[in-house]
Amino acid sequence: MGIRVAVAGASGYAGGELLRLIVGHPEFDLVTATAHSQAGAPVAAVHPQLTGLDLVFGATDPAVLAEADLVFLALPHGQSATLAAALPETVKVVDLGADHRLRDADAWTRYYGGAHAGAWTYGLPELPGQRAAIAESSRVAATGCYAVATILALAPLIAAGAVSAEDVVVVAASGTSGAGRAAKVHLLGSEVMGDLSAYKVGAHQHVPEIKQATGATSLSFTPVLAPMPRGILATVTARPTGTGPDPRTVLTEAYADEPFVRVLPEGTWPHTSATLGGNSCHVQVTSDVDSGRVIVSSAIDNLGKGAAGQAVQCANLMLGLPETAGLPAYGTTP
């Protein structure tokens, strides 16, 4: 028998992607998948891509989850902390929600509301020092989807002094799966298809997470709902310091040995479709000929590197497995 793995909140989009990755993982044994409204339903009835998986959703019972070696929490924001607190320390936990990402309690209250549950190890292995920290942790907070696309584009540049930490501007478009699976009128196909719309402008909850991970001190973030099921394309602009190293050299060196981050050849720009189904992030950088600002474009699958894939990557490190185990590095275009 392999490593016993459970997923709480497995009926959602991120939960379904987690199940797909887990059943294809060489070391994982999926023993429990729980859901609230779908408890008692066959997994394949909710996730038809998993037809053939003989498993039924159970109720979210901490005692049942505690029988696993590792638990993924794919629950709505604000629901993970209570469940995690009921699990013994001997069970490793990766939380895909936001409950344990932020170190600043005031930032949590401002952007999410309610009591701050405390910060766990932040689950982005590509950040300096985080790979080792994740490997030593039993509790890891996976990244937000917009956050990882932005952080991977920006963090090395600020750290190297190539761009200023002030006056960072981000515009990022995401597929509708990023909003979850709950039925919402504005996410109906007839509402989304043929349309682009900004939302949560000036107050998106991933802003403090991005600032925490990159060192940015001033960040303007505009998220855009795009007429596609999955994927994120982020455009990040920042002012060059004028005294720092070349931005392309910084990114190329930062990700030279990373298994999932690709700095594209000059003149080639990221496409969301090229990352779909994979745990990859594609990055390109240039300088604006008019303003002189540094422009970085990054693409990810919001359910892959932005959620389930990133969570499995962290779990591999926590369990002492090869970081790439069970994770595709390439997308599925077309």
TrEMBL record:
Pfam families: Semialdhyde_dh, Semialdhyde_dhC_1. One of its GO terms (molecular function) is N-acetyl-gamma-glutamyl-phosphate reductase activity. It is an enzyme of class 1 (oxidoreductase). InterPro entries: AGPR, AGPR_dimerisation_dom, AGPR_type-1, NAD(P)-bd_dom_sf, Semialdehyde_DH_NAD-bd. Keywords: Amino-acid biosynthesis, Arginine biosynthesis, Cytoplasm, NADP, Oxidoreductase. Residues 4-135 form the Semialdehyde dehydrogenase NAD-binding domain. Pathway: Amino-acid biosynthesis; L-arginine biosynthesis; N(2)-acetyl-L-ornithine from L-glutamate: step 3/4. It catalyses: N-acetyl-L-glutamate 5-semialdehyde + phosphate + NADP(+) = N-acetyl-L-glutamyl 5-phosphate + NADPH + H(+). Its EC number is 1.2.1.38. The active site is at 145. GO terms for cellular component: cytoplasm. It is found in: Cytoplasm. One of its GO terms (biological process) is L-arginine biosynthetic process. Belongs to the NAGSA dehydrogenase family. Type 1 subfamily. Catalyzes the NADPH-dependent reduction of N-acetyl-5-glutamyl phosphate to yield N-acetyl-L-glutamate 5-semialdehyde. This is N-acetyl-gamma-glutamyl-phosphate reductase. The lineage of its organism: Bacteria, Bacillati, Actinomycetota, Actinomycetes, Micromonosporales.
